[in-house]
Amino acid sequence: MHDSHDPLRSLFQEAASAGQSASTTPPVAVIERRGERHRRHRIVGIAAACFLVLAGSGAVLSAFLPGDSGPTLPATTPSPVAPSPTSAPPPPPNSTAPTLNSMTPPRNTTPPPPLNSMMPSGSRTTSPVDPTGTATMSATPPQSPR
Known about the structure:
By secondary structure, the protein is mostly helical. Helices cover about 40% and strands about 0% of the residues.
C-alpha cells in the first residue's frame, strides 16, 4: 500500500516542517530568568508554609495554656494616707519664687563637736560659733605655726 497520495499524511508533514522552522531555542538569558522566577516562587511558598505552621502551633499553644483571669488584686485594700500636719503644702507647679522653707537653713538641734578634737595636736585653733549653735567656716584653712 502506497501512502504517498494520502492528503492527511501530507498535511501532517507540512505542519511538522512549519513547526520545526518556527521553533528555536530561547536565548540562555531567557532560560535563566525563567529559572530564577521559578526558584523565587518556590522560596516564597516554603516561607509561607513555615509561617502557617508557626502561626498554627502558636494558636494551638495559646488554646491549651490557661487564660488570664484579669488583673491581680492586692490581698488587702490599702487605707488612704492622711497628710501630716507638720508637712508644708507643695509649691504651685508654675511658681518660680522660692518658698520660706527653701530660704531658711535647717537648724541643728545638737551643737557640732568642737573643732579642736578633729584637728591634729599641732594646729589647735578655735573658730567663732554662730548664736544658733552652728560653726562658721572661714575661707582660709588654719595654718600651723612654723
